[in-house]
Design goal:
369 residues, alpha+beta
Protein backbone atom coordinates (compact mmCIF):
# COMPACT_ATOMS: atom_id res chain seq x y z
CA UNK A 1 0.00 0.00 0.00
CA UNK A 2 1.30 3.46 -0.89
CA UNK A 3 2.25 5.90 1.87
CA UNK A 4 -0.42 8.30 0.59
CA UNK A 5 -3.09 5.59 0.76
CA UNK A 6 -2.14 4.74 4.35
CA UNK A 7 -2.20 8.42 5.26
CA UNK A 8 -5.69 8.94 3.83
CA UNK A 9 -7.08 5.64 5.14
CA UNK A 10 -5.86 6.31 8.68
CA UNK A 11 -7.73 9.62 8.76
CA UNK A 12 -10.91 8.01 7.38
CA UNK A 13 -10.80 5.16 9.92
CA UNK A 14 -10.33 7.49 12.90
CA UNK A 15 -13.20 9.79 11.89
CA UNK A 16 -15.45 6.84 10.98
CA UNK A 17 -14.91 5.13 14.34
CA UNK A 18 -15.52 8.38 16.20
CA UNK A 19 -18.70 9.10 14.24
CA UNK A 20 -20.17 5.63 14.79
CA UNK A 21 -19.31 5.82 18.50
CA UNK A 22 -20.95 9.26 18.76
CA UNK A 23 -24.12 8.10 17.01
CA UNK A 24 -24.32 4.99 19.20
CA UNK A 25 -23.73 6.99 22.38
CA UNK A 26 -26.40 9.55 21.50
CA UNK A 27 -28.92 6.86 20.57
CA UNK A 28 -28.40 4.95 23.83
CA UNK A 29 -28.41 8.14 25.90
CA UNK A 30 -31.66 9.43 24.37
CA UNK A 31 -33.38 6.03 24.64
CA UNK A 32 -32.17 5.56 28.22
CA UNK A 33 -33.53 8.90 29.38
CA UNK A 34 -36.78 8.21 27.54
CA UNK A 35 -37.25 4.90 29.37
CA UNK A 36 -35.59 5.82 32.67
CA UNK A 37 -38.83 6.18 34.61
CA UNK A 38 -40.09 2.80 33.38
CA UNK A 39 -36.77 1.08 34.15
CA UNK A 40 -36.81 2.41 37.70
CA UNK A 41 -40.49 1.49 38.20
CA UNK A 42 -39.86 -2.09 37.00
CA UNK A 43 -36.70 -2.43 39.14
CA UNK A 44 -34.58 -3.43 36.15
CA UNK A 45 -31.03 -4.32 37.18
CA UNK A 46 -27.95 -2.60 35.75
CA UNK A 47 -26.79 -5.90 34.21
CA UNK A 48 -30.05 -6.28 32.28
CA UNK A 49 -29.89 -2.65 31.08
CA UNK A 50 -26.34 -3.19 29.80
CA UNK A 51 -27.37 -6.41 27.99
CA UNK A 52 -30.41 -4.65 26.53
CA UNK A 53 -28.42 -1.79 25.01
CA UNK A 54 -25.57 -4.05 23.88
CA UNK A 55 -28.14 -5.95 21.82
CA UNK A 56 -28.91 -2.66 20.04
CA UNK A 57 -25.33 -2.20 18.80
CA UNK A 58 -25.50 -4.31 15.58
CA UNK A 59 -28.60 -2.43 14.43
CA UNK A 60 -27.06 0.93 15.33
CA UNK A 61 -23.90 0.14 13.37
CA UNK A 62 -25.93 -0.91 10.33
CA UNK A 63 -28.19 2.14 10.41
CA UNK A 64 -25.48 4.74 11.05
CA UNK A 65 -22.69 3.32 8.88
CA UNK A 66 -23.81 5.17 5.74
CA UNK A 67 -23.66 8.67 7.19
CA UNK A 68 -20.55 7.83 9.22
CA UNK A 69 -18.80 6.56 6.08
CA UNK A 70 -19.76 9.64 4.08
CA UNK A 71 -18.80 12.10 6.83
CA UNK A 72 -15.41 10.47 7.43
CA UNK A 73 -14.51 10.45 3.73
CA UNK A 74 -15.66 14.03 3.08
CA UNK A 75 -13.91 15.35 6.19
CA UNK A 76 -10.65 13.70 5.16
CA UNK A 77 -10.63 14.91 1.56
CA UNK A 78 -11.95 18.36 2.44
CA UNK A 79 -9.07 18.80 4.90
CA UNK A 80 -6.60 17.66 2.22
CA UNK A 81 -8.13 20.17 -0.14
CA UNK A 82 -8.08 22.95 2.46
CA UNK A 83 -4.33 22.46 2.95
CA UNK A 84 -3.72 22.39 -0.82
CA UNK A 85 -2.60 18.77 -0.58
CA UNK A 86 -5.05 17.73 -3.32
CA UNK A 87 -3.44 20.25 -5.66
CA UNK A 88 -0.01 18.77 -4.92
CA UNK A 89 -1.28 15.23 -5.43
CA UNK A 90 -2.91 16.09 -8.75
CA UNK A 91 0.23 17.93 -9.87
CA UNK A 92 2.14 14.67 -9.43
CA UNK A 93 0.01 13.18 -12.22
CA UNK A 94 -2.54 11.19 -10.19
CA UNK A 95 -6.11 11.10 -11.53
CA UNK A 96 -9.40 11.06 -9.65
CA UNK A 97 -9.54 7.28 -9.23
CA UNK A 98 -5.98 7.06 -7.92
CA UNK A 99 -6.58 9.84 -5.41
CA UNK A 100 -9.88 8.40 -4.14
CA UNK A 101 -8.87 4.73 -4.19
CA UNK A 102 -8.45 4.47 -0.38
CA UNK A 103 -11.92 5.94 0.21
CA UNK A 104 -13.62 3.74 -2.39
CA UNK A 105 -11.94 0.59 -1.08
CA UNK A 106 -12.92 1.60 2.45
CA UNK A 107 -16.53 2.15 1.37
CA UNK A 108 -16.62 -1.27 -0.30
CA UNK A 109 -15.29 -2.90 2.88
CA UNK A 110 -17.93 -1.08 4.95
CA UNK A 111 -20.65 -2.23 2.53
CA UNK A 112 -19.49 -5.86 2.81
CA UNK A 113 -19.30 -5.56 6.61
CA UNK A 114 -22.80 -4.08 6.83
CA UNK A 115 -24.14 -6.93 4.70
CA UNK A 116 -22.44 -9.48 6.98
CA UNK A 117 -23.67 -7.83 10.18
CA UNK A 118 -27.19 -7.57 8.74
CA UNK A 119 -27.17 -11.26 7.87
CA UNK A 120 -25.41 -12.80 10.86
CA UNK A 121 -25.87 -10.54 13.87
CA UNK A 122 -28.90 -8.25 13.49
CA UNK A 123 -31.58 -11.03 13.50
CA UNK A 124 -30.11 -12.67 16.59
CA UNK A 125 -29.54 -9.40 18.46
CA UNK A 126 -33.10 -8.28 17.63
CA UNK A 127 -34.50 -11.47 19.13
CA UNK A 128 -32.37 -11.00 22.27
CA UNK A 129 -33.48 -7.38 22.52
CA UNK A 130 -37.15 -8.35 22.18
CA UNK A 131 -36.81 -11.11 24.76
CA UNK A 132 -35.16 -8.80 27.30
CA UNK A 133 -37.85 -6.19 26.69
CA UNK A 134 -40.68 -8.73 27.12
CA UNK A 135 -39.28 -10.64 30.10
CA UNK A 136 -37.42 -7.95 32.03
CA UNK A 137 -38.65 -4.47 31.11
CA UNK A 138 -42.31 -4.70 30.05
CA UNK A 139 -43.32 -6.98 32.95
CA UNK A 140 -43.87 -6.09 36.58
CA UNK A 141 -41.32 -7.25 39.17
CA UNK A 142 -43.77 -9.89 40.46
CA UNK A 143 -44.08 -11.48 37.00
CA UNK A 144 -40.34 -11.93 36.39
CA UNK A 145 -39.09 -15.50 36.31
CA UNK A 146 -42.53 -16.92 35.47
CA UNK A 147 -41.85 -17.84 31.88
CA UNK A 148 -42.44 -15.99 28.64
CA UNK A 149 -45.00 -13.17 28.74
CA UNK A 150 -48.41 -13.59 27.14
CA UNK A 151 -48.65 -12.07 23.65
CA UNK A 152 -51.65 -9.81 23.08
CA UNK A 153 -53.37 -8.79 19.83
CA UNK A 154 -51.49 -11.08 17.46
CA UNK A 155 -52.41 -10.52 13.80
CA UNK A 156 -50.84 -12.15 10.75
CA UNK A 157 -51.45 -13.74 7.35
CA UNK A 158 -51.44 -17.52 7.38
CA UNK A 159 -51.57 -20.25 4.80
CA UNK A 160 -54.57 -20.78 2.51
CA UNK A 161 -55.10 -17.00 2.39
CA UNK A 162 -56.27 -16.81 5.99
CA UNK A 163 -56.00 -13.77 8.22
CA UNK A 164 -55.58 -14.52 11.94
CA UNK A 165 -56.70 -12.27 14.79
CA UNK A 166 -55.75 -13.62 18.22
CA UNK A 167 -56.56 -11.79 21.46
CA UNK A 168 -53.94 -13.64 23.53
CA UNK A 169 -51.35 -16.33 22.91
CA UNK A 170 -49.54 -17.96 25.85
CA UNK A 171 -46.19 -19.31 24.58
CA UNK A 172 -45.73 -21.28 27.81
CA UNK A 173 -48.86 -23.42 27.36
CA UNK A 174 -49.58 -22.74 23.64
CA UNK A 175 -53.13 -21.65 24.51
CA UNK A 176 -55.12 -19.18 22.40
CA UNK A 177 -58.08 -17.03 23.42
CA UNK A 178 -60.37 -14.79 21.39
CA UNK A 179 -59.76 -16.41 18.01
CA UNK A 180 -61.01 -14.97 14.72
CA UNK A 181 -59.84 -16.39 11.38
CA UNK A 182 -60.94 -14.84 8.08
CA UNK A 183 -60.50 -16.90 4.89
CA UNK A 184 -60.48 -15.48 1.34
CA UNK A 185 -60.27 -16.93 -2.12
CA UNK A 186 -57.64 -15.88 -4.68
CA UNK A 187 -59.80 -12.90 -5.65
CA UNK A 188 -59.88 -11.76 -2.02
CA UNK A 189 -63.57 -12.62 -1.64
CA UNK A 190 -64.70 -13.71 1.82
CA UNK A 191 -65.34 -17.47 1.87
CA UNK A 192 -64.92 -18.47 5.52
CA UNK A 193 -64.99 -17.07 9.04
CA UNK A 194 -63.93 -19.04 12.11
CA UNK A 195 -64.62 -17.73 15.61
CA UNK A 196 -63.65 -19.54 18.81
CA UNK A 197 -63.36 -18.63 22.47
CA UNK A 198 -60.30 -20.78 23.11
CA UNK A 199 -57.78 -23.00 21.35
CA UNK A 200 -55.17 -25.47 22.62
CA UNK A 201 -52.29 -27.21 20.85
CA UNK A 202 -52.55 -31.00 21.20
CA UNK A 203 -49.05 -31.56 19.88
CA UNK A 204 -50.38 -32.49 16.44
CA UNK A 205 -53.25 -30.12 15.72
CA UNK A 206 -55.23 -27.22 17.15
CA UNK A 207 -58.41 -27.96 19.11
CA UNK A 208 -60.90 -25.09 19.27
CA UNK A 209 -63.64 -24.73 21.90
CA UNK A 210 -67.01 -23.05 21.42
CA UNK A 211 -66.23 -22.76 17.75
CA UNK A 212 -68.42 -21.28 15.03
CA UNK A 213 -67.53 -21.79 11.35
CA UNK A 214 -69.40 -19.66 8.82
CA UNK A 215 -69.07 -20.42 5.10
CA UNK A 216 -69.72 -17.77 2.47
CA UNK A 217 -70.22 -17.83 -1.29
CA UNK A 218 -68.27 -15.53 -3.57
CA UNK A 219 -71.37 -15.08 -5.74
CA UNK A 220 -73.11 -13.12 -2.97
CA UNK A 221 -70.59 -11.08 -0.96
CA UNK A 222 -70.97 -11.41 2.84
CA UNK A 223 -73.92 -13.78 2.39
CA UNK A 224 -73.41 -16.91 4.59
CA UNK A 225 -74.50 -20.25 3.12
CA UNK A 226 -73.87 -22.36 6.24
CA UNK A 227 -73.09 -21.92 9.94
CA UNK A 228 -71.72 -24.78 12.04
CA UNK A 229 -71.37 -24.72 15.83
CA UNK A 230 -69.06 -27.03 17.78
CA UNK A 231 -68.16 -27.20 21.45
CA UNK A 232 -64.90 -28.92 20.54
CA UNK A 233 -63.35 -29.28 17.10
CA UNK A 234 -59.97 -30.31 15.71
CA UNK A 235 -58.99 -27.72 13.13
CA UNK A 236 -57.31 -28.16 9.77
CA UNK A 237 -54.68 -25.47 10.36
CA UNK A 238 -51.08 -25.92 9.26
CA UNK A 239 -49.74 -23.18 11.56
CA UNK A 240 -47.96 -24.44 14.71
CA UNK A 241 -47.15 -22.55 17.94
CA UNK A 242 -43.66 -21.87 16.53
CA UNK A 243 -45.30 -20.14 13.56
CA UNK A 244 -47.29 -17.95 15.95
CA UNK A 245 -44.10 -16.93 17.74
CA UNK A 246 -42.31 -16.37 14.44
CA UNK A 247 -44.91 -13.78 13.42
CA UNK A 248 -43.53 -11.44 16.07
CA UNK A 249 -40.21 -11.22 14.29
CA UNK A 250 -39.97 -7.97 12.39
CA UNK A 251 -39.35 -8.47 8.66
CA UNK A 252 -36.64 -5.81 8.81
CA UNK A 253 -34.76 -8.00 11.30
CA UNK A 254 -34.78 -11.12 9.12
CA UNK A 255 -31.77 -12.07 7.02
CA UNK A 256 -32.07 -12.92 3.34
CA UNK A 257 -32.51 -16.64 3.91
CA UNK A 258 -35.21 -16.15 6.55
CA UNK A 259 -37.10 -13.63 4.45
CA UNK A 260 -36.86 -15.80 1.32
CA UNK A 261 -38.25 -18.79 3.26
CA UNK A 262 -40.98 -16.57 4.72
CA UNK A 263 -42.05 -15.42 1.24
CA UNK A 264 -41.93 -18.96 -0.12
CA UNK A 265 -44.06 -20.22 2.76
CA UNK A 266 -46.84 -17.69 2.16
CA UNK A 267 -46.54 -17.31 -1.61
CA UNK A 268 -49.61 -19.48 -2.11
CA UNK A 269 -51.72 -17.74 0.52
CA UNK A 270 -53.32 -15.38 -1.99
CA UNK A 271 -52.22 -12.28 -0.08
CA UNK A 272 -50.81 -10.72 -3.25
CA UNK A 273 -50.15 -7.23 -1.87
CA UNK A 274 -48.40 -8.54 1.25
CA UNK A 275 -46.22 -10.92 -0.76
CA UNK A 276 -45.32 -8.11 -3.16
CA UNK A 277 -44.26 -5.91 -0.23
CA UNK A 278 -42.11 -8.72 1.14
CA UNK A 279 -40.40 -9.15 -2.23
CA UNK A 280 -39.62 -5.43 -2.24
CA UNK A 281 -38.09 -5.84 1.24
CA UNK A 282 -36.04 -8.79 -0.03
CA UNK A 283 -34.47 -6.74 -2.85
CA UNK A 284 -34.01 -3.80 -0.52
CA UNK A 285 -31.92 -5.96 1.81
CA UNK A 286 -29.52 -6.56 -1.08
CA UNK A 287 -29.27 -2.90 -2.11
CA UNK A 288 -29.13 -1.49 1.43
CA UNK A 289 -25.40 -2.16 2.07
CA UNK A 290 -24.47 -0.75 -1.36
CA UNK A 291 -25.57 2.74 -0.32
CA UNK A 292 -22.33 3.09 1.69
CA UNK A 293 -20.28 2.86 -1.50
CA UNK A 294 -22.68 4.77 -3.75
CA UNK A 295 -23.09 7.78 -1.45
CA UNK A 296 -19.31 8.02 -1.00
CA UNK A 297 -18.85 7.80 -4.77
CA UNK A 298 -21.19 10.71 -5.40
CA UNK A 299 -19.85 12.75 -2.47
CA UNK A 300 -16.15 12.56 -3.33
CA UNK A 301 -16.24 14.86 -6.41
CA UNK A 302 -17.76 17.64 -4.29
CA UNK A 303 -15.05 17.26 -1.65
CA UNK A 304 -12.31 17.49 -4.26
CA UNK A 305 -13.92 20.44 -6.06
CA UNK A 306 -14.55 22.47 -2.89
CA UNK A 307 -12.19 25.29 -2.12
CA UNK A 308 -12.05 27.66 0.79
CA UNK A 309 -10.77 28.17 4.31
CA UNK A 310 -10.24 25.25 6.64
CA UNK A 311 -13.17 25.99 8.96
CA UNK A 312 -15.43 26.64 6.01
CA UNK A 313 -14.38 23.31 4.50
CA UNK A 314 -15.49 21.44 7.61
CA UNK A 315 -18.97 22.93 7.52
CA UNK A 316 -19.11 22.45 3.76
CA UNK A 317 -18.36 18.74 4.21
CA UNK A 318 -21.10 18.37 6.81
CA UNK A 319 -23.59 20.20 4.58
CA UNK A 320 -22.70 18.07 1.56
CA UNK A 321 -23.01 14.88 3.63
CA UNK A 322 -26.42 15.86 4.97
CA UNK A 323 -27.78 16.92 1.57
CA UNK A 324 -26.51 13.82 -0.25
CA UNK A 325 -27.71 11.49 2.49
CA UNK A 326 -31.11 13.19 2.64
CA UNK A 327 -31.60 13.06 -1.13
CA UNK A 328 -30.58 9.39 -1.27
CA UNK A 329 -32.92 8.39 1.54
CA UNK A 330 -35.82 10.33 0.03
CA UNK A 331 -35.27 8.87 -3.44
CA UNK A 332 -34.92 5.37 -2.00
CA UNK A 333 -38.13 5.76 0.03
CA UNK A 334 -40.01 6.95 -3.08
CA UNK A 335 -38.75 4.00 -5.14
CA UNK A 336 -39.74 1.49 -2.46
CA UNK A 337 -43.15 3.14 -2.05
CA UNK A 338 -43.80 2.96 -5.80
CA UNK A 339 -42.86 -0.73 -5.81
CA UNK A 340 -45.09 -1.51 -2.84
CA UNK A 341 -47.89 0.43 -4.48
CA UNK A 342 -47.59 -1.68 -7.64
CA UNK A 343 -46.29 1.08 -9.92
CA UNK A 344 -42.90 -0.64 -10.21
CA UNK A 345 -41.74 -4.23 -10.00
CA UNK A 346 -40.16 -5.18 -6.64
CA UNK A 347 -36.62 -5.25 -8.02
CA UNK A 348 -37.15 -1.99 -9.92
CA UNK A 349 -38.23 -0.12 -6.80
CA UNK A 350 -35.26 -1.38 -4.78
CA UNK A 351 -32.61 -0.82 -7.48
CA UNK A 352 -33.90 2.47 -8.93
CA UNK A 353 -32.13 4.79 -6.49
CA UNK A 354 -28.76 2.93 -6.37
CA UNK A 355 -28.57 2.86 -10.18
CA UNK A 356 -29.68 6.47 -10.55
CA UNK A 357 -27.17 7.82 -8.01
CA UNK A 358 -24.36 5.68 -9.46
CA UNK A 359 -24.99 7.13 -12.92
CA UNK A 360 -25.14 10.65 -11.48
CA UNK A 361 -21.82 10.10 -9.68
CA UNK A 362 -20.10 8.81 -12.82
CA UNK A 363 -21.49 11.73 -14.84
CA UNK A 364 -20.14 14.30 -12.33
CA UNK A 365 -16.74 12.58 -12.20
CA UNK A 366 -16.37 12.35 -15.99
CA UNK A 367 -17.60 15.94 -16.42
CA UNK A 368 -15.23 17.50 -13.88
CA UNK A 369 -12.21 15.21 -13.76
Amino acid sequence: MRILDRYILKSILVIFAGTVFTFAFLFILIDLFGNLQELIAKSVSLEVIVQYYLSFLPSIVVQTSTMACLISVLFTYSNLNAHNEIIAIRASGMNFWQITRPALVFALIVSATVFLVNEKFVPQSSMVNQEIRDTQIKVSPSQKGKGKPIIHNLTFYGLKNRLFFIDTFDPNTNDLTGITIIGHDHNQNLIEKIVALKGIWTGIAWKFFNCQITTYTSALPNAPISIKMSEEKLMDLKETPKDFLRQRMDVSSMNLSQLHSYIKRFSGSGAIKTINNLRVDLHQKITFPLRNFIIVLIGLPFALMSVGKRKAMTFTSIAIALVIGFLYYVADAVGLALAKGGALLPWEGAWLTPLLFTLMALFIIVRNF
